[in-house]
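Hi there, hope your week has been kind to you so far. Do you reckon you could talk me through the fold, stretch by stretch? Thanks so much in advance, here it is.
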Amino acid sequence: MDIKNVTETIAMIEEQNFDIRTITMGISLLDCIDPDIDKAAEKIYAKITDKARDLVKVGNEISAELGIPIVNKRVCVTPIAIIGAATDAADYVPLARAMDEAAQKVGIDFIGGFSALVQKGYAKGDKILIDSIPAALAATQKVCSSVNIGSTKTGINMSAVADMGRVIKETARLSDLGAAKLVVFANAVEDNPFMAGAFHGVGEAEVVINVGVSGPGVVKRALEKVRGASFDVVAETVKKTAFKITRIGQLVGQMASE
């Protein structure tokens, strides 16, 4: 970075509300599958606390080194409906508790992945997970939940729509913040690192680092400087500003991965 880029970055942070919204580690739990739900919970706790043990420390070190605020450190995991399906358990609250205990152990802000993907229909673990959501979110502090109920390709699972309507109401009844930690999706992507809907897709690598960048104030200030200019100038301004924001996010992601 030359001196002009450095001063622009400082201005983005100090004057325009730029920050790194989150570093989110995605962790595959496929090797934690076990027919005994208690053993599965133990494996989940052990893997999260192992892989994410340095996440908060590294995030704070990067923030101090670059002078860029990193607001949240988070984890997302393989949809728990997949992990729980191997068991004969009637609810998956023990798995949610294991996630929550691991999150508190490593000091992260949130953990996502108490999730089910049911856009085309229910598999064995999906209905159990959905029914477990109200109690799971009431019993935990940092766990976030999501359910994908439709997609452009497959349509909408109307049974899931009906079920999630009841689940949202029950979740809100059981806990003050439960419904704020629950997302109902259509067209969920499998590399979504953003809470409360984050989960680690089965097509993802074993462990990945995602960086979320918050820069609406930066774009707004850049556009104010070209007020009244031609559309070409406006488009070029947005493009260059977005590139600068994304470049800093990429730098943080590379450092965190290392």
